[in-house]
Amino acid sequence: MEIKSLLKQIDYERFSGDENVLIKGMTNDSRKVVTGDIFVAVKGFTADGHRFIKDALKNGAAAIMCEYIPSELKDEGNFIVVKDPRASIAPAASIIYGHPSEKINIIGVTGTNGKTSSTYLLKGIYDHMGDKSGIIGTMGVLTDGEKIKVDNTTPEAFDLQKYFARMVEKSIDHCFVEVSSHALKLNRVDNVNIDVGIFTNLTRDHLDFHKTMENYYQAKKKLFYLTKINNIINVDDEYGERLYRELKEEGIKAISVAIDNEATIRALNLITTKEGTSFDIDIQGTIKKAHVNTPGKFSVLNSLGAFGAAYALGADADKIIEALGEIKGVTGRFEMLENNLDCTIILDFAHTPDGLQKVMDTINEFAEGRKIVMFGAGGERDSARRGPMGEIAGKYCDLSILTSDNPRFEDPYEICLEIAQGVEKFGGKYEIIVERDKAIYYAIDNSISKDVILLAGKSTEPYQDMGTEKVPYDEGSIAKKAIIDVERKRGLKK
To answer: Among candidates 351, 317, 315, 321, which has minimal Cα distance to 333?
Structure first.
């Protein structure tokens, strides 16, 4: 595409340079510029992209999209001057990549917890029905067996459009996208043709960015103004109940799902074991039997959201239910690790008070012995969650092992002490073991028959955020190695 073709389709204030130059891609990182890219100079939270225009030009940028042209560079390149560079990325990227989101069905999932599980449930549903599908989210971009790591839950707009284009090339029919509040606030999903939106829940998180829960809610709400066909809202959540009511008042389509409250699609008569949860699903008066292989109410609610979205897109209810019964679960989401120690060891991403509460509620439904939890809390992020997470652990667990979890520039021991104050409110027992791999080993090595051990917070997150470094970290592998070591120690494995 030539620059002049793009200019005919976007809002801009002025252009300087050669409009016949070809453009092939887009980025806001001068270090990643390749020949043919538009470099977008965004004023970020810590740096102004206009400072890196010179570097971008050296790296082969075909054009610069910017708020102003640095005087010393006005004759050095092709400049598209726009009012708001960040807001201009999404419409331009959609054009450059040929509006790919219009050529596939897209379901966007937002909420504090449950986004990853929901997208993988949807993939399982459509895999069962023989449709090709892809995922964009926390665990990367999954496209026809190819997996690409991403830095953000929801990538920047130009990467989103590039991934959609790749899926179109591979004849993928559906894409399931985790839509973060940051992405909504920062315009990353603008100009994405989203067919169905799913709201899972909203609890305290990301207030370092949003400042207030109301701001957080309003950022999430933005998704449901972008959808074309319908929205699926969990009305058991207080913010979901509000969202459903407001959308209906504004004439925006929405389907309610719930367990405890009245809803269009509702789960009834739940029976939970550690092997999963069986329930009746009521679809506007039609009752069908269903089962999911991950236990707990939260798992059922995620399944209802996925069911509702697929149903809204025309999938057969019986086939969806059949698929839900076959899906084995998502790696790192209430994942039970095999062992010969006569105990249950669970790997889960729970890293907020609500997430931890939901997992503990589920464990309480089947636990026969002691309940042990190992977790920490992030540094330089919403420190107010530390005490409440400790309180949940102190209330429900026989032992809490407090450890490091993305301390960044804070002292992880001091973070653990803040969590411990919450544990102490309920007279809970705890140990502080800052080195996370040692904490994992301690939990497993000190297990006895019928214990349930929850390793919470990291799950599949592949790093520890420490100072200026993201140190590689694989909780699943570390836990599995600890299990084998303890089994050998006890003579249960050669």
So the answer is: 351
179: Cβ–Cβ under 8 A, 6 or more apart, which residues?
A: 108, 109, 110, 115, 154, 189, 197, 223
Beta strands at 14-16 and 79-81: parallel, antiparallel or unpaired: antiparallel
Largest CA distance in the chain: 75
Q: Which residue has the tokens 């949860």?
A: 277
Residues contacting residue 247 through CB under 8 Å, at least 6 positions apart: 224, 231, 233, 253, 254
Domain 335-489 has CATH 1.10.287.610: no
- As given in the structure block, the two tokens for residue 69 are 């042209």
CATH code of the region 100-326: 3.40.1190.10
* Inter-residue contact 266 to 333 (CB < 8 Å): no
pTM above 0.70, yes or no: yes
Query: Given this structure, which CATH class describes domain 3-85?
Result: alpha beta
Closest CA to 327 of 124, 84, 168, 470: 124
Structure tokens at 50: 């206009």
Encoded tokens for 245: 């009511």
β-pairing, 227-234 vs 255-258, is: parallel
| Six token digits for residue 296 | 């707990």
Q: List, by residue range, all CATH 3.40.1390.10 domains of the chain.
A: 3-85
**DSSP track, 218-251:** HHHHGGGGSEEEEEEEETTSHHHHHHHHHHHHTT
Contact between 343 and 448 under an 8 Å Cβ cutoff? The reply is: yes
Q: For residue 356, give the amino acid letter.
A: L
Encoded amino acid at 414, one letter: E
Structure tokens at 149: 């790591």
Whole-number Cα distances in Å, 98 to 25, 46, 103, 133: 11, 32, 10, 19
d(CA 160, CA 208): 25
**CATH 3.40.1190.10 occupies which residues in the chain?**
100-326
Which value, in Å, is the radius of gyration of the alpha carbons in the chain?
24
Of 455, 476, 479, 448, nearest in space to 341 by CA: 448
pLDDT in tens, 223-258: 999 999 999 999 999 999 999 999 999 999 999 999
Residues of the chain with pLDDT under 70: 204, 206-207, 210, 494
**Ranges of CATH 3.90.190.20 domains, the chain:** 335-489
